[in-house]
Design a protein that fits this description.
The protein is mainly β. Helices cover 5% and strands 48% of the residues. It has one helix and 29 strands.
């Protein structure tokens, strides 16, 4: 009996030692709670840098979409008995209703000067039941709302913002459109018969970056670039990479960061218009990646290899691909990771079960968190 008690005591001592040495956070992680890993996890290539979390807290219910260039306001989607677009003031912590509709908003971005919000809205034909979408713009004071896309257009959910207040989007007619709130439109025809899925605009180069299905294999989605020419309304595209699942453009550097699917794994790669090929930075199980606004680092999400769980942890690394540091434990993230324009602050949304949320709205299924970090 004494031997058994001795073994139990020894086991408890070892377990307590592991718990304390782990920083109390790496060993026991609550399910789908934004627990922050304050220390760099053990890896084959440990970073000489140290990351610390200054604060993290729930900002607001909803799914975050975008942030103003001042960093003072977020766009959030909340879905209940109606579909709402809300704005959240990061200074006053106030949530305000922007659009309340029976039509579902699919995506939303602030315009170039933060004077209004462009959003894609889902449409269902009451007679045929066919599903489409349109682009709408509303000014931030909610005094003016305009439908930007034409009635016959079915627009792509993922659109971009130009450098002079325009929105750039693709439609079901194999066209790319640059349009502004005054009704001015420039329509470009893509020479290849692509089915465009996501699109954005490179300001300095006057170019378009987009993901489209491969004409020879619709199961594959490739990343393309097309430069706009002043004397032509046709766009000839160049293949950047095959099997691309997502991309982001840094407005300051005009660099593109994207996720390439390699089959059993994914790689984070970067590209710019002056490069003949893209550059690989890291290989793993990645969901998304984006540059911090100053272009110095890349924030990305990563899932656990060979896991059926869709949860992803948030990481950050140098733009060169070095010094990877883990910010959070795995979470059911259901938004882009939004970077504050000039602070080391991230906003992201986590999918929650309705019975785990303290809210008067039983339909609220997502919470947006604010995380402030420091890298030494």
């Amino acid at each position: 009996m004494k031997k058994i008690q001795s073994k139990i005591v020894s086991f408890c001592f070892i377990l307590l030692t592991l718990f304390l040495s782990s920083g109390c956070q790496n060993l026991f992680i609550p399910t789908n709670v934004p627990v922050v890993l304050r220390y760099n996890p053990v890896s084959n290539n440990p970073s000489p840098q140290q990351i610390s979390i200054q604060s993290y807290n729930m900002a607001s219910p909803g799914i975050v979409q975008d942030i103003t260039k001042s960093g003072n306001n977020l766009i959030l989607f909340t879905f209940g008995t109606t579909y709402n677009i809300d704005t959240y003031n990061t200074e006053t912590l106030q949530l305000s209703s922007f659009v309340n509709s029976d039509k579902k908003a699919l995506s939303a971005l602030y315009d170039t000067f933060d004077t209004g919000i462009y959003y894609a809205q889902k449409l269902i034909d009451p007679i045929t039941g066919s599903v489409g979408s349109q682009i709408i713009w509303s000014d931030v004071n909610q005094n003016t709302t305009r439908v930007i896309s034409l009635p016959e257009e079915n627009v792509v959910q993922r659109f971009g913002i130009g450098n002079s207040g325009q929105v750039v989007y693709a439609n079901n007619n194999n066209q790319i459109v640059l349009a502004n709130t005054e009704g001015n439109r420039q329509v470009y025809t893509v020479l290849n018969n692509y089915n465009i899925l996501a699109i954005d605009y490179i300001d300095k180069e006057k170019g378009i970056v987009f993901i489209a299905t491969n004409p020879q294999n619709e199961e594959r989605t490739n990343l393309y670039y097309a430069k706009i020419k002043d004397d032509s309304d046709e766009l000839a595209s160049t293949l950047i990479a095959e099997n691309v699942t997502s991309f982001e453009i840094n407005d300051l550097t005009d660099q593109v960061v994207f996720i390439k699917n390699n089959g059993d794994s994914q790689s984070i790669r970067t590209w710019n218009t002056s490069a003949s090929t893209s550059s690989g930075l890291a290989t793993g199980n990645y969901g998304s990646a984006r540059f911090t606004p100053n272009g110095e680092r890349i924030v990305f999400t990563q899932s656990t290899p060979n896991s059926d769980n869709q949860a992803e942890s948030i990481w950050i690394m140098d733009a060169s691909g070095k010094n990877s540091l883990q910010l959070t434990a795995p979470l059911n993230i259901n938004s882009e990771i939004i970077c504050h324009p000039y602070k080391s602050v991230l906003f992201f949304s986590v999918e929650k079960s309705s019975d785990s949320i303290i809210s008067t709205d039983e339909h609220t299924l997502s919470q947006t968190y604010q995380l402030t970090y420091k890298i030494d």
